[in-house]
Amino acid sequence: MTYSLWIIITGVLVGITCGMTGALLVLRKMSMLADAISHTVLLGIVGAFLVTHSLNGVPMLVGAATVGILTALMVQLLDSSGVQSDAAIGVVFTSLFALGVVLISFIGDSVHLDVEHALMGEIAFVPWDTWTWNGVNLGPTAVWLLGFVFILNLTIILLFYKEFKISTFDPQLAISIGVPVVAIHYVLMSMVSFSTVASFDSVGAILVVAMLIVPGATSYLLTDSFGGMIALSALIGALSSLLGYTFALFVDVSISGAMATATGLLFTLAFFLSPKHGMLAKWYRRKQMQKQQLNA
Q1: CB 187, CB 167: distance < 8 Å
Q2: DSSP labels for 113-169?
Q3: How far apart are CA 189 and CA 35, in angstroms?
Q4: How many angstroms separate the CA atoms of 275 and 281, rounded?
Q5: What is the pTM of this model?
Q6: In contact, 271 and 278? CB cutoff 8 Å
Q7: In the predicted model, is pLDDT for residue 296 greater than 70?
Q8: Which 8-state DSSP code applies to residue 111?
Q9: For a pLDDT cut of 70, what percent of the chain falls above it?
Q10: pLDDT of residue 110
Q11: What is the dihedral of CA 184, 186, 188, 194, to 10 degrees?
């Protein structure tokens, strides 16, 4: 495959993987927790490297999942102790992310990981970091890792589709019929952590946050179907990657930044043009109601 095609595949996989997971977060009103986890997983990545001296996929996924669950637990603990939920997220987010930044200083120059790399990533370098097996070049490592996490997340959603649905819309009913709501919650946190760490090296935390939140928010404006929202969010994430890469190619700007900007553009279009929830549709319905009242 060509250099550009690998970048496009990576961006699309990030959009799909984060998009379908982010739709669940948006429905559960947990979008800012995704922001926190996408930053605090830096601590998990650094911790995994300090223990294993490797940035291979499995140690990173384990470290990220551990810190992701730890983030959710700490936020829940502070929230239940009387701290406002947004303040709890802010305290945990900044503390764990800062600890990860501090620990990076112990790594030094032994690995290509720093704060700027963690925040911004560099998707243009993805085609050069390849996975070789028995002397055969199998393509970029990031693509394989993202592909694995995509299949894992999709499998979890399909296996626990009913549990996710009922615990999202009516957690009390879910508890009463025996759905393990707490376990489902932490499974979702693990999915967010996996998605983040798989995307981290390629695109950085900034695009991960955009892909986790904005496609889900956009699809929320376009459909009232639970399954449809998950699918549409993944599609919007993929489309944002394609539009962002095309724009970055012609204007010569940051690829990750352009992809994140594309998510905002698609959200803006949905915000105004959505057939049911868009501003223009609401304005039209309001005018129609006023006209009916005048004619009554």
Answers
A1: no
A2: --HHHHHH--GGGGGGSEEEETTEEEEEHHHHHHHHHHHHHHHHHHHTHHHHHHHHH
A3: 12
A4: 6
A5: 0.86
A6: yes
A7: no
A8: S
A9: 92
A10: 56
A11: -140
Question: CB-based contacts of 21: which residues, under 8 Å, 6+ apart?
Answer: 153, 188, 191, 192, 195, 212
Beta bridge partners of 140: 130
Per domain, the residue ranges of the chain are 3-295
Does an H or E element contain 255, and which? helix 255-273
Between 156 and 120, residue with greater pLDDT: 156
pLDDT tens digits for 140-168? 888 888 999 999 999 999 999 999 999 99
Rounded CA-CA distance 170/179 in Å is 11
CATH number for the segment(s) 3-295: 1.10.3470.10
| Residue 115 clears pLDDT 80, i.e. is over it | no
What is the per-residue DSSP string for 219-254? Answer: HHHH---HHHHHHHHHHHHHHHHHHHHHHHHHHT--
Give the pLDDT confidence of 52-99 residue by residue, as tens digits: 776 666 777 788 778 888 888 888 888 888 888 888 888 888 898 888
- Pairing of β 130-133 and β 136-140: antiparallel
**Residue 77 contacts residue 91 (beta carbons within 8 Å):** no
**183-233 pLDDT per residue, tens:** 998 899 888 888 887 877 677 777 788 899 999 999 999 999 999 999 999
Short-list 248, 197, 157, CA closest to 43 = 197
Q: What is the CA radius of gyration of the chain?
A: 20
Q: Give residue 286's identity as a one-letter amino acid code.
A: R
Amino acid making up residue 125: F
